Amino acid sequence: MMSEFKSSVIRVKALGLHWRGTRLLAFEVYDRHGTLKGVRPLGGSIEFGETAKDAVVREFKEEVNVDVSVVGGPVTLENVFSHDGQSRHEILFIFDVAFPSGAFDGQERIRFQEDDGTWLAAAWYDPRDLDVDGKPDLYPKGLKSCLSLGAIGGRSSTE
């Protein structure tokens, strides 16, 4: 019964785009068989009474313990999709964010733990290498088009 409820809720989320040159920081999304199916920028749900900007700052602090600065956006994207056989619907506020100088220098991957205890890994990916045959998808669908059109993704984050 709970899965029916979860599928009928429209979620409102804030995502942050952090760039290293032309590479975007995104966490890895696996299917139920453990196969990498895509990557998605970091972020999460907006809490009641919280602005989208405050939510993206909070999410980065919670997930990877870094105080980001919002440097662009938001761009709004609606995403209707299926995950593990369930229909999902979300409204996303997407921001460009910058890390403090020196944050994660020399690291190609960042491991972090979600509130539910799940361990995830994030890395920097070139969007041109995503959504092509044999490579992971970039989630949410439509984000790559926004990046290509220059609607977001000013790549002004620190190197």
Question: Can you offer a commentary on this structure?
Answer:
The protein is α+β, with helices and mostly antiparallel strands. It has one domain (2-100, 110-149): Nucleoside Triphosphate Pyrophosphohydrolase (Alpha-Beta Complex). Helices cover 16% and strands 43% of the residues. It contains three helices and ten strands, in the order H-E-E-E-E-E-H-E-E-E-E-E-H. The strands form two sheets. Strands 2, 3, 4, 8, 9 and 10 form a six-stranded mixed beta sheet that branches.
Helix/strand/pairing category: alpha+beta
DSSP helix fraction? 10-25%
Largest sheet: 6 strands, mixed
Give the CATH architecture.
Alpha-Beta Complex
For the termini, the CA-CA separation is 46 Å
% residues in beta strands: 35-45%
Q: How would you sum up the global shape? A: globular
The tally of helices reads: 3
CATH superfamily descriptor: Nucleoside Triphosphate Pyrophosphohydrolase
Helix/strand order, N-terminal first: HEEEEEHEEEEEH
Tally of distinct domains: 1
Task: Specify Rg, calculated over alpha carbons.
Answer: 15 Å
**What is the CATH top level name?**
Alpha Beta
- List segments where confidence is low: pLDDT < 50 over at least 5 consecutive residues: 1-5
CATH topology: Nucleoside Triphosphate Pyrophosphohydrolase
The overall pLDDT, averaged over residues, is 88
